[in-house]
Structure formats: C-alpha cells, structure tokens
Amino acid sequence: MGRLDGKVIVLSAAAQGIGRAAAIAFAKEGALVTATDINGEKLKELEAFKGIRTKVVDVTKKDQVEALAKEHEHIDVLFNVAGFVHHGNILDCEEADWDFTMNVNVCSMYLMCKAFLPKMLEKKAGNIINMASVASSIKGVVNRCVYSTSKAAVIGLTKSIAADFIEQGIRCNCVCPGTVDTPSLRARIQAQPDPEQAYKDFMARQKTGRMCTAEEVAHLCVYLASDESAYVTGTEQIIDGGWRL
C-alpha cells in the first residue's frame, strides 16, 4: 500500500520544480491529487500520471481559490507552493516589487488556508504544508530582502495556524529549502548580467558541493503529508545541505 493511499491533496505551483515533483510523488504514493498552476500548458503534462487531475488557478485571486475549494467535498492535505523570488536589497525593492512578492508568497497562502481550513475542521482532521525557505527568519541572505521577509511571514503563518487549531485535529508545518535546482532557479541565473558567474556564486555556498533536487524536497513533503508525521506540527522542516550552518 502507498503511504498516502486515498488522501485528497491539493497543491499550487505544480507545473514545474518542487510543486511538480511533489505532485508526482504524492500520486505515486496513492494520493488523489489536484495540481494547480497558472501555466496550463506545462500543467497538462501531469495528467499522464495516474491520480493527478489538473486545474488552472491563480491562487492570488480570491474568487478562483474559493471556486477551487467548492470543488472539493473534503481535503486531507493542502500544500501551498506558489512563490516568487525577488533579487535585491531593500533599496532595490520598489513598492510594486514588495506588493507583488507579498501577494504571491504570503497572501496566496492566506487565501488557500482560509478557503480549505473549514473543510478540514468539519472532519476534525487536516494537514497544511507551506513552502517557506531558509532565507527567512532562519538565515539572513544577501539580496533577498523582500523574499526573506515574505518567507519569514510564512513561518509565522504556519506556527499561528498550528497553535490555533491543534486541538481541532489540524497540523501545519512548513518546508524550508536552501538552494534547489529548479527551472525557476536556472531562469534567474540566465537573467543575470553574467550567468556563468551567477552559477558559480550559487555553487560556492553549497557546502555539500551540489544543489538540492526538487525530488529530495518532495520526499520530505511526502513524509509531512503522511500519517508518519502525525505528531509533527508547527515546525520548520529545514532541507538545505547545511547552508545555514
């Protein structure tokens, strides 16, 4: 039997990277997965995997999130993955950058949690996983001002939900990766004035000599989604190859 047999899981940002790897890992363990993203073309590729259905959803839009929630009679696991990485310090961050990052990285999770949590409370059972980062309240990182601020907020949101609803059968944890080799990271490297040097800079901070893979993060997410982690709530699950040390 799969570790997630029969569990209903909804996740965002599933078209590529960590979200895609997690959706596939969940399905392979027997879960019934609703994978969402704004990139419908890439998202459709997941339909090749048994147990995954896809839906184009902008999780920063309240009406779309609420419509998604109405499609689900119940839900076991909500995995909030959607995020955006802004490069720069506070002086490089315009108000529009700040607002956009907070909207994608924090407000989307607020909307998703608020829409799906009542369904969990009806069953007195539920599990929320939020994507945070080591670049947050865990570690100060150069040129990640608004990103780190947003991910620190995600950690705060996670702990708040865990504390407020622990007696109603709800668990809430967050995943805090270091540098993960994803299409998003590769695109950001290529967007730099000197991509080769940017890649070297990323590799220089990898104490293990390599980046994390999306599949490695997905393994952790499977654990958090499963009953194996039934006594785990309100935690920051760090997977960074020792970067924070």
UniProtKB/TrEMBL annotation:
It is found in: Cytoplasm. One of its GO terms (cellular component) is cytoplasm. Pathway: Siderophore biosynthesis; Amino-acid metabolism. One of its GO terms (molecular function) is 4-oxoproline reductase activity. It catalyses: (R)-3-hydroxybutanoate + NAD(+) = acetoacetate + NADH + H(+). Its EC number is 1.1.1.104, 1.1.1.30. It is an enzyme of class 1 (oxidoreductase). CDD domains: DHRS6_like_SDR_c. Its main location: cytoplasm. Pfam families: adh_short_C2. InterPro entries: NAD(P)-bd_dom_sf (IPR036291), Sc_DH/Rdtase_CS (IPR020904), SDR_DHRS6-like (IPR051122), SDR_fam (IPR002347). SUPFAM superfamilies: NAD(P)-binding Rossmann-fold domains. Keywords: Cytoplasm, Lipid metabolism, NAD, Oxidoreductase. GO terms for biological process: erythrocyte maturation; heme metabolic process; hemoglobin biosynthetic process; lipid metabolic process; siderophore biosynthetic process. Homotetramer. Belongs to the short-chain dehydrogenases/reductases (SDR) family. This is Dehydrogenase/reductase SDR family member 6. The lineage of its organism: Eukaryota, Metazoa, Chordata, Craniata, Vertebrata.
